[in-house]
Design brief:
alpha/beta, single chain, Rossmann fold, about 270 residues
Amino acid sequence: MSEQIRISEYTQANKLAMNVAAPLHRECRYEYLLACFKNEGYSYLTDIETDIFNQLGVRGKSVAQLACNNGREILSIKNLGAGRCVGFDISDAFIAQGVALAAAGNIDCELVVSDVYGIPESYYSQFDIVFVSVGALILMPDLDRLFKMVGNILVHDGAVFIYERHPILDMFHWGETGDPPRISASYFQSGPCATTTGYNYWNKQPYECPTMYRFHHTLSDIFSACLGSGFSITAFKEYAHDISEVFKHFEQNALKLPLCYSLIARATG
């Protein structure tokens, strides 16, 4: 079996799992989001995300978000004053939710059902900024191919902005509330982790789902894939707050762990 076929099998399996997750997530926060996006200019983005987008000069820029889920972030980016905005996600169920959110706010944003590794060539060299947010990288089996695609869809000297959960959190069980945290896996674990149990981060409840695959990537994996794909890293910062809604209780620990990070890189090729 070729590596490309294997990657396709992983991502298609994750699509089925995400389509199971979509209605469960909808039950928790969707009506709230619908109401929020009816308010002109509403933004779901954190202050950190907003500040970084403003530093990147987002107003008038074309922006793509990879693994955009229900589109709440890319719609918010459009409301910051961005130009053309496109969100890509493999789950047609989540994209359908995003289309409804866009309609509620009368927001001009394109939402596309697509495997990130298979974004059509018509989107190549179209974007000034590519955004990758929380929960995306853990579903990506091949970072080299991911950053290659980011380079494909960016214009020359375009920027990629990643705001993600810290990979050190893969050492701990999701949803555990013990204090201190209990290490349950190596930071250097490798290979896909198959599971039939999802975790709804909105209501903190597990659920059964089709087999899905998660992939652990160390910071050095992320940096190496980024640099090896022709990017220049211009900023990197770690934070002690949780953006995953899964490890929020870790914020209260006296001995702080890095819980998320931001990374900005420029396409130099």
